[in-house]
Amino acid sequence: MIEFFRRNRRGIVGLFIVSMCGLMMVPFGLDQLRSQSMDPTIAVIGSKEVRMSEYLKDYARVRSMFVKQFGAQFDQFETMLNLKQRVLDDMIDKTLLTDFFKSIGLSASKSQVEAAVRGLPVFSNGVTRVEFENFLSNQGITESAFLAEMKESLMEKQLTDIFENAGSIGPVELSKRYEKLQEKIGIDYVKIPEQKSTDAVSASEISEYYEKNKEIFVTSRAVLPLIVTFKADSFRDKVVIDEADLIQAYENSGKKFEVPRKLKVDQVRFSSSKNELAKLVDTKNEPKDNVEEIKALSTAAREKLLADPMIDLKVFKDQGAIITVGEALVDETSLTDDIQSAVKNLNKGSISEVIESGSDFLIVRVNEATDSFKKPLSAVRASLEEEIKASLAPEYAMVSAESLVKKLESEIASKIPELLKEEAAKINAQVIAVDKPVSNESRPTSITDKGLVEFITELPSGALRLYDKSSAGDVTIVYAIEAQEVRPKTLEEVTFEITKTLERKKVTETTKLFAEKLIKEFKESLLANTELTFKSFFKAKKLEVTEIAADKIALLSIPFIQNPQEKNLVIGEARSSKFVDKVISGIDGSSYLIGLGKIEKIAPASDNKVLLDEQYKFLEESKKKAGERLNKILLEQLKLKVKPEIKSELLPK
């Protein structure tokens, strides 16, 4: 009966899906034509076309990430970053590399991707589902898209590793770099306190910023849904199980209902590990290995047991044996693996072979034994029925939901919400109340399944769909009452957000001017007093100076500089002029000034270790640079071969 139910259910559903596909063909074709006219192709890479919508989605996400990173200073970097072209270039590079990876068989497993995610700095304290979803939300990316990017990144790393291993450095260059390692530099830095601006944000500034950044001020697609969930548990009582189904399930249960046999066993254990004590006290020679002696002793003991199975085990204590007497019957499966192996086929009164267990030799005597047996159907009927009901309840929920959807599809759209609620009440289905449109920015607390949120936001207006991704086997019907497409936000909607951004920008600009004034003062003071140091000057200004010692610089880096190349450049400037003649913007959004701390010569005693360590680091850096050059050459060759067609004139101005 169960199998009949499953076969017919799938047949009905399959027929229904096929018929629906047929009905949808005509409108789908029209929509596709419309979407092509409104969503032009901006690049063709081999057989792949990059659509404007795809590009804008990537561009909005990347731009949003830079805005979050640079905050109010983003405007200063926007022109330099040239994001619009860079995003398109990255999409082209990614497509070319992905095709290349497939052609040479590079891939990354699921476990490698998961390990890479766990290794991200943001998850240094471990990954939880909540933290991961918050991270995805902050990055503006779906889980599947993020994991796909991580996989591509791992494959790029594999390729880079191949290139790096091909890189090399000549002896002359290595010698030059070796000479630079004769000294180390320490640095000092000061964080410039924020300086409040007295200049208020004007309406014209807000308007100008809005016009310049209109493309990022857009709403998320939102859908007002009616959600009805068919809880699988509520369908358990509707599952019909006949006797044949029950018997078949019982017969197919394997060892699930098997009761293991019970045993009462005695153990005689001879150990060779006591020889370790002899090794400690023998200062002349290592003692002879007595493993063979102990084995022979165990064999003789077994022969005595075979001759007299009920012999008092105390006789073996004088020979150094450890005796364990079984006090009660225990499940065979609760015994240790080595004892289970020894007594596997033994009955009451039997003696095991001599078992080698680590450094011990063990003999087991079986005093009592019961047979294993399978519980009768009568004893497990109730639990087996519940198990079958639990397994089939999701199927019943699905059939019920599918039937209701099929019934409602023939109704007038305006009647569907009320009819859906009425039908839900009849079968005690759960209606999830949502009083406003659902979007990626507005996720109601009544919906705990994040996958359901994504499912809802992609529905067209008037759609009636089934969602069956619940881990509990629940089935949900979603009716899209109204869909709100992506639209530009009005100036009024974003005025507060823009005001805060511009206020932050003014604070940053005022702070930068203050820092530049300090630079000028330091330079003038340095001309008058050549002994003046960065530390003494800024301490006199009541500003806190942080010191990174010469022997710590490689370990600590410069905490507010993320780019290693920029860090090395800054250290070089400090080395040559005692003071970095510019304001440095940290990854935390603050402004910093850097000066020379102290230059230390490497002590001769540490030459061998320190210089060789640094020499190796430079070699690795050079190999990495060689790998990056080879990677660049590969992309250039792929572009020459594939010849991507780019329609730059279609990019947003």
Largest sheet, in brief, is: 5 strands, antiparallel
Q: Rg from C-alpha positions?
A: 37 Å
Per DSSP, what share of the residues sits in E-state strands of 2 or more residues? 5-15%
Count of helical stretches? 21
Brief write-up:
The chain is of the alpha+beta class.
Describe the protein's topology.
Elements: H1 2-38, E1 41-45, E2 48-51, H2 52-70, H3 74-81, H4 83-104, H5 110-118, H6 129-139, H7 143-166, H8 171-180, E3 183-192, H9 203-212, E4 222-230, H10 243-251, E5 258-259, E6 262-271, H11 275-281, H12 291-307, E7 322-324, E8 330-331, H13 337-343, E9 355-357, E10 360-369, E11 373-374, H14 377-408, H15 416-426, E12 430-432, H16 450-457, E13 464-467, E14 475-484, H17 491-528, H18 534-540, E15 545-548, H19 553-556, H20 564-577, E16 584-585, E17 591-601, H21 607-642, E18 645-646
Antiparallel strand pairs: 1-2, 1-18, 3-15, 3-17, 4-12, 4-14, 5-11, 6-7, 6-8, 6-10, 9-10, 13-14, 16-17
Helix pairs in contact: 1-14, 2-4, 4-21, 5-7, 7-21, 9-17, 10-14
